[in-house]
Amino acid sequence: MPSRKFADGEVVMGRWPGSVLYYEVQVTSYDDVAHLYTVKYKDGTELALKESDIRSQSSFKHRKSQSSSSSPSRRNSSRSRSRSRSPGRPAKGRRRSASQSREHKDDKKKTIQETSLALVVLVLFKPSENNTKRYNGEPESTEKNDTSCIILEQKLKPDLEVKRVLEQYSLRSRKDDKKTEEIFSEKKTFVAVKPIEKVPSKTKELEFGGRIGTFMLILLLPATVLYLLLMCKQDDPSLLNFPPLPALESLWEWRVFGIFLLWFFLQAVFYLLPIGKVVEGLPLSSGRKLQYRINGFYAFILTAAAIGVLLYFEFELHYLYDHFMQFAVSAAAFSLALSVYLYVRSLKAPEEELAPGGNSGYLIYDFFTGHELNPRIGSFDLKYFCELRPGLIGWVVINLAMLLAEMRIHNLSVPSLAMILVNSFQLLYVVDALWNEEAVLTTMDITHDGFGFMLAFGDLVWVPFVYSLQAFYLVGHPTTITWPVAAAITVLNCVGYYIFRSANSQKNNFRRNPADPKLANLKFIPTATGKGLLVTGWWGFVRHPNYLGDIIMALAWSLPCGFNHILPYFYVIYFICLLVHREARDEHHCKQKYGLAWERYCQRVPYRIFPYIY
Ligand code: NDP
Predict the structure, then answer these.
(1) Pocket of ligand 1 (CB under 6 A)
(2) What band does 498 get if pLDDT is binned at 50, 70 and 90?
(3) What's the pTM value of the predicted model, to 2 decimals?
(4) Which CATH number applies to 10-57?
């Protein structure tokens, strides 16, 4: 007996969630376990549909010709039914000008009289200039759109039914929702439209340059770290002054590797301590939610106490500076071994636990991007642990070691102003990340990317050893800055931090609880997945305000190093490239997830990261 009715690639009619409308879609894959088809609408939106929500085109055409239909889709007049399209596709009516013939208008009204609430949906989705405004949340008072259809519909249909549909598809601030709630004891938009999660399927669109690109990155990333650290050690770290390669044996010391392991497992012990609350992550494609313990900040406090004890007993923390390269090599070796382990274990992971972006079937690609989404040993979540603990806290410890090394080498009683600024700014960044640890659960790293070489190397090597480059640079290249300059840089960092923090909190709170009273003034575009897209507040300013804040901070971290060399600016240059690329990836995913709603969002918020520039 065949387990599925429709084949991959077949063009069928798929029901649009929450409506009675069927649109032409193409089947892209089928999940045997969940019995769900992944289908692609013409505007690019991909959704998972049950078989009962899919019909063959021929049966659909046959039904359309029947006049005594009783199903919702069949109740529509043949004219309105023939407008089969996804909400993302422009309606035919878009091409009509206001001066079109009376016949057209009469036809339109007639159609409206014959259709039920499905048409209200169509009218609202009709992306004429003015309807776009409505859909995108322009205040009611500014609407001068072609509302004749809606008004007529409201006269024809019972108020309750119309409002219910408007509530699902139109946009307003939640203050208005409250009014609506007083009239209907209906649930809010977010609940009314049940989230439809994408079923994991094979990754077809390869990122990072595909197989060759990822292979190159596996070689290039460690080489870049080595190059940067060697450059930083030079008296003149100019771009053209290429550093001599060190002897291989000088890069490895078992004692250093032992200390690295000790550090990693100490952080693992802190992670396992039964302190801190346990929260749920966002729903997985199976609908299941994983639990995460939030105790990163406690781990930081315990680490700070441990470092304090070591310093009290005169342990020489500048050992880290003296063996910096060896520590970096140890961390790289460990992250490579971890990545191999992650890939091997991912081969046995069930299909639904694989990462949406790392399931191409190509070994190198999946090894790099991460094959398994949330690898766990019991309740120990390897990715979540590595994201914020050993590397991030390690970065602060390295910075402190650099500060002490500077004082020792240059015989200073207090660290330089430049070193204090770099240490303080980056300490704030790390403490903020740990304090708001829960927010990491809604980031791409956790929800989309698998755990493979990219994140393992990034978390354990790139973050601690490259992000501390400014402090490392200052040890060998003392820089004097004046108090007014220091004050200006501090203001810049505070501005960046404010944008970064408030944007991230706004989105995180909205994702966790869209009904949060603190967000009552914000407007959003509802989407078919049940999630909204904020169009006011920070997310109405640019499409990635958090990246903007992060980049401003990155600049503030480099400026204390002066302008003698470009090396300390490596971080800000790399970071702009990273976030521009990351933004493009995210944009692509959001377009797939939200289709038309995302396009509307982009129309409403045209700039991606830098207002009026990009
Ligand atoms: P974001 O936190 O920016 O999350 C992007 C997601 O937010 C989208 O996929 C979408 O997910 C949701 N979203 C997009 N637009 C809207 C909107 N208008 N309203 C509501 N939700 C929206 O992504 P990242 O994980 O890339 O970044 C998290 C933080 O980490 C950022 O501050 C970034 O700067 C920082 N970062 C730092 C790095 C570093 O090395 N220091 C590296 C990478 C990131 P959905 O709709 O599915 O919820």
Answers:
(1) 442-445, 500, 504, 507, 510-511, 531, 533-534, 539, 544, 546-547, 550, 582, 586, 589-590, 601
(2) very high
(3) 0.69
(4) 2.30.30.140
